[in-house]
From TrEMBL:
<dbReference type="InterPro" id="IPR052267">
    <property type="entry name" value="N-DRC_Component"/>
</dbReference>
<dbReference type="InterPro" id="IPR003959">
    <property type="entry name" value="ATPase_AAA_core"/>
</dbReference>
<dbReference type="GO" id="GO:0005524">
    <property type="term" value="F:ATP binding"/>
</dbReference>
<dbReference type="GO" id="GO:0016887">
    <property type="term" value="F:ATP hydrolysis activity"/>
</dbReference>
<dbReference type="InterPro" id="IPR027417">
    <property type="entry name" value="P-loop_NTPase"/>
</dbReference>
<dbReference type="Pfam" id="PF00004">
    <property type="entry name" value="AAA"/>
</dbReference>
<protein>
    <submittedName>
        <fullName>Dynein regulatory complex protein 11 isoform X2</fullName>
    </submittedName>
</protein>
């Protein structure tokens, strides 16, 4: 039942995507000048792509068919990249990172929660084994060094012996004072009870008065309990306190976790079967259909030889391997069509040569200037146009494959949603044909030479020496360039392994263990009045949800998907600014948790005294970036980055700066005077 439900969801999402692609292709061609209209158009496309992304991510996580998952993954990466492209378009248009869509959400009848960008689960699923191994190695290194990064939350400061004795004395005197106060209280209560007993004496209290007193106490106790219960219910209703069974895991959640675990196992099994079938089916096709494919290709090429000879009087030149061999000639064309194309190309080349000779240089320059002025005037008149997209073509290809293969496919026989062997045969036939074509091309080249010698009695023309010399010169230039680049990118740690560099960074505290924090734990509310405030020329304060969305777009999605990272608009660094306690460090750790990235801490307080001098700084950066590239994805965190740009040091920071400079002066004795002058200034 679940597979049919998610198959329906996939079909609906694909239909929505195809209609959106058609609309976007129409809008891209039209020029626009009204900035408000342009932003509304970009924002509507952005919101609709986010809805498609949410559905596709859910479908990809639930479907177990391996061939469907490959196609959905391709479209999912394309949609992710397109969202980032549209975000970049809006940023360039409005020159701000924060955008508000409350008016559009009302028009589209969507809740603000539906605008939240999900983090695909495959980011961690595909790297789960690698992340676990890395965590084991990190924990082992920390255990060997006697340092546990998870337990250490605050830095430990060394204090002198006298100060430590004073702290112990204060704590001990406070403990003794508390014990003495408790003892005096007990004595006071005993004396009070003795005095009350003397006052009452042997006077017997009335039974009714005693009952009333008991009732008063009991009713007061009941009323206080009732008030506490009502107060707790009110706080739960208002959302200020969690419900009583909030932390307890229910039976439905346990069952859902079992189902997800079983589904993950089925997905893994189907993928392994699919990979095995790719090899076995190709081997079977080699044995059964390989000889027939070879014979058909040879006959086709021989027919082409004979027909070209009959029409042109000479045998044709065989295409080179770099050009693609015979695959270029017979790409859905008959031999006659191929010959007609060759004749037409020769005629075009001759006509172009004649035109070039006839043209004068003066007229060419004038025409170029005219064309440039015309293009400039056209750009000014046309107005704004959407920049070309890299991911639209990818999504269109995926939607075309869906229409041709999966839209009307009958899968009544495939109840368990295993791989389709017929689809694998079609793919592997093409691969096998291309492999056999390379072998056939070698044979047919030799056969063509023999035919030319036997029938036409043509001699092989000698290869021109000028090309060889030119090629040598180019190679020399390339070699020189490589030598220059080698000097710049010199490997300072060529004799060391990545494992040893990794261990060194962990021991020095530069590579730290990220805290297990999800980005969803960064809770915030949507800005409901963002658009209305901007209409009155008031810039709204970004909410926590807006910050979380930007971190997801710029930090998590490019790190999680390699395809998106290569082609999407590049964001090299993020600046998280704000007062202490708003969650900047939490967001850094959340990015690493969601993507399984390594965390390098290059804060000034962390690197002080670890790699002294200019050569040490160069070595530190080299080691960090080398390990970060080899063990991607990686995050480099620089805390308190604003302190490096101080023009005048505040009084609170002056003591810390003095300590750092004293340590630095011990390593750089030649720079004592300028540094001291700067400090005194």
């Amino acid at each position: 039942m679940s597979n049919t439900m998610y198959n329906k969801m996939w079909h609906q999402t694909q239909e929505a995507l195809t209609s959106l692609l058609d609309k976007e292709s129409q809008k891209m061609m039209e020029p626009h000048q009204n900035q408000v209209f342009i932003f509304q158009m970009l924002a509507t496309f952005y919101i609709k792509y986010v809805q498609i992304f949410r559905n596709l991510e859910n479908v990809y996580d639930q479907i177990v068919h391996p061939q469907k998952r490959i196609l959905i993954r391709k479209i999912l990466d394309g949609v992710m990249g397109r969202i980032l492209e549209l975000k970049n378009e809006m940023v360039e248009l409005e020159l701000t990172e924060f955008h508000y869509f409350d008016d559009l959400l009302q028009d589209l009848k969507l809740a603000p929660q539906q605008l939240d960008i999900p983090i695909p689960k495959y980011f961690l699923k595909e790297k789960l084994e690698v992340i676990k191994e890395r965590e084991k190695i990190l924990a082992q290194i920390l255990a060997n060094t006697g340092f546990d990064a998870t337990d250490k939350k605050y830095p430990v400061r060394a204090i002198p012996l006298e100060e430590a004795i004073k702290v112990i004395q204060v704590a001990e005197r406070a403990r003794q004072g508390r014990l003495r106060a408790m003892f005096m209280k007990q004595i006071f209560l005993q004396e009070y009870r003795a005095r009350q007993a003397k006052i009452l004496g042997e006077k017997i209290a009335d039974a009714g008065a005693a009952a009333l007193r008991i009732q008063k106490v009991w009713r007061g106790f009941q009323q206080s309990k009732k008030a506490e219960r009502e107060r707790e219910e009110e706080m739960i209703f208002l959302g200020m306190n969690p419900p009583p069974l909030f932390n307890e895991v229910g039976a439905t959640i346990i069952e859902a976790e079992k189902v997800t675990h079983m589904r993950d196992k089925v997905q893994m099994k189907h993928e392994e079967d699919y990979r095995g079938a790719l090899v076995t089916i190709k081997d079977d096709l080699k044995l059964t259909e390989g000889p027939d494919i070879k014979e058909n290709l040879q006959e086709q090429i021989r027919r082409w030889f004979i027909e070209c000879r009959n029409l042109t009087g000479t045998f044709p030149d065989y295409p080179r391997e770099e050009e693609g061999g015979s695959a270029i000639i017979f790409s859905n064309k008959t031999p006659q069509q191929v010959i007609e194309d060759m004749i037409a190309n020769q005629e075009e080349k001759e006509t172009n040569k004649k035109k070039k000779k006839e043209k004068k240089p003066k007229t060419a320059k004038k025409e170029k200037e005219k064309n440039e002025t015309k293009e400039k005037n056209k750009e000014e008149d046309e107005g704004w146009k959407m920049s070309p997209s890299i991911f639209l073509h990818k999504m269109e290809e995926g939607s075309n494959v869906y229409k041709d293969v999966w839209k009307n496919k009958d899968e009544s026989w495939n109840f368990y949603q295993d791989y389709d062997p017929e689809m694998i045969k079609e793919e592997k036939r093409k691969e096998l044909e291309s492999e056999i074509r390379v072998q056939v091309d070698e044979l047919m080249r030799q056969e063509l030479k023999n035919l030319k010698l036997a029938v036409n009695r043509e001699k092989e023309l000698p290869v021109k020496t000028g090309r060889k010399k030119g090629g040598k010169k180019k190679n020399k230039r390339k070699k020189r360039k490589k030598g220059k680049m080698g000097k710049k990118d010199k490997d300072l740690t060529a004799d060391r392994t990545i494992e040893s560099l990794y261990k060194e960074l962990v021991e020095e505290g530069l590579l730290i263990q990220a805290l297990k924090v999800n980005l969803s734990d960064y809770i915030g509310e949507y800005s409901y009045l963002g658009t209305t405030l901007r209409q009155v020329s008031i810039e709204p304060m970004p909410s926590l949800l807006d910050v979380r969305q930007l971190v997801t777009l710029y930090g998590v999605l490019p790190l999680g998907s390699a395809a998106v990272h290569k082609k999407a608009p590049l964001v090299k660094s993020l600046l998280l600014a704000g007062p202490s306690g708003v969650g900047k460090k939490m967001l850094v750790h959340a990015i690493c948790t969601e993507t399984g990235a390594n965390l390098f801490n290059l804060s000034a307080t962390n690197i002080a005294g670890k790699y002294p001098g200019n050569s040490g700084l160069q070595m530190m950066l080299h080691v960090v970036f080398k390990v970060a590239r080899q063990l991607q994805p990686s995050v480099v965190w620089i805390g308190d980055a604003e302190k490096t740009f101080y023009k005048k040091v505040p009084n609170s920071e002056r003591e810390k700066l003095l300590r750092g400079l004293i340590y630095y002066l011990s390593w750089e004795p030649g720079r004592k005077l300028p540094l001291l002058a700067k400090l005194l200034h």
